[in-house]
Write a structure and sequence with these properties.
Distance between the termini of chain A: 22 Å
Number of strands of chain A: 10
Number of strands of chain B: 13
Largest sheet of chain B: 10 strands, mixed
Strand content of chain B: 15-25%
Radius of gyration of chain B: 20 Å
Largest sheet of chain A: 6 strands, mixed
Distance between the termini of chain B: 23 Å
Oligomer: heterodimer
Chain lengths: 162, 398
Amino acid sequence: MSGAARAHHLPAGLPIPVSEPDGLSAPYWAGLRLNRLLVQRCDRCTTWQFGPEWICHHCHAFDLTWTEVEPIGRIFSWERVWHPSHAALKQHGPYVALLVELPHAGRVRMVGNLLGDPRQTLVIGTAVAGVFEHHLQSDPAYSLLQWRLQQGPAVSESQSAD
Amino acid sequence: MTARARDERTLRGRVAVIGIGETEYYRHGASPDPEFKLALKAILAACEDAGLDPREIDGFSSYSDDRSEASRLAAALGTHRLRSATMQWGGGGGGCCAAVANAAASIAAGLADCVVVFRSLAQGQYGRFGQAGGIHTVSGERSYLMPYGVLAPPQRFAMRVRRYMHDHGVRQEALRAIALAAYHHAQANPRAVMHGKPLDAEKYDASRWIVEPFHLYDCCMENDGAAALLLVPAERAGDFRHKGVYVLGAAFGSGHRAAATAHNAPLYATASFDTVAPDLYRMAEVGPSDVGVVQAYENFTGGVVMALAEHGFFKPEDANEFLTVDNLIAPSGRLPLNTSGGNLAECYMHGLELVLEAVRQVRGTSTNQVPRNDVALVIGGPMVTPASNLILGSEATL
């Protein structure tokens, strides 16, 4: 369902994601480097949690387990960006940012870009699949999770694991 | 404390606004004065309006990490003493009403007797909100957004609004009506940066997208300037130049896990007033039908749609029907909105200009005066946390 992007969707020069000094999100970023999407899940009450936090917001257990999930989901919302809010985007033209919901991981959401034609028609609820995008020449190196429209049947509510 | 007093923990009628003031409002980067000097000018203007010696100020209240620090202001103004200094947590304009609430609470609790609420911005000196530059690495919330080009407020809020429009069938025309009403009001307001620059539907429709669903005119301006208002205990309201305008209620905060990172708030398509609006009406002892005029913070028009619905003026499904230019303009509209021009067309004074306009409406001195002016609502920055709101009223409402 997922693969590695051959090129970078947005130009170089945007802010580079790094873990906090206390290491809270380090497993997430390390996972992306290895083509693995890791999301926190509470061992005690099975609540999924993203973005990461030191405590489970549901039962207050500490140190949730980073759990690998399949990078598929559906479009929860979207936006097509035209105005460049960063010097690196000045000549780039429009791009699409998605908010993707993961039904099989407690419906947590994450933001990424939609690969492909930025002018395409977008529909909330459309199934998408993750694409790992590696920026190994960057200093520091990092990896992102991008999205493409998924072939085949849409991810349905009934596939939810919780 | 007696049981009766405990039952009456409220700001209602305890505190009055007795002075308002602002500097000239400038386009961003155009202020000839540095930010701290702007703050001083606005505070002195509010004192002049009230007929108050600035040395009597004994408290300062602001928000959004205002850089003009309370103790420096107190020293610069030579105030007799400093008794209250409150900063509302959270960025953006979410705190523009909370700063008034914190000032009022300081007075009601007996900590201070004359508190100035202020906000000052000189973007030429310190940079704009709408551009993200000079950042090499990011952590936390921003790390899940910025590498994907979700950098500045327009991109951070557009997906909330898109989802809301999807959920409730809200059309672009509803957003447009909010922009047109603001520009309409600015044409009668000589303070407004967009005074003399009218907007019509054709110009709105033809304007470029910033980020869908926001056209250029759905987005607030960025400006330089400062604004201030003075609060005293209600029993002192009669000692000043203008009749007092009373705090009827104030509230701030947000609902369950509104700050869950990377757009994971359980209630996503919201302006964050689902819990805050009921608190406000409860304290003020009024409902939406008592409100004659509304100032609602427009970071983006879409946030105003949500905020008005969450304050009970219409159901989300009826937004298209309610949000028409005719309904939103003074004096005859069903709910005159942003009667100074607001963040879109008067000045992006981070929402404090909206509080000043609500005071003018209750006084009866607005350039777009409404006839039903006893109860005026201000809604602070929507879609953020903590958000805040405020209801002001005339002496007759006490």
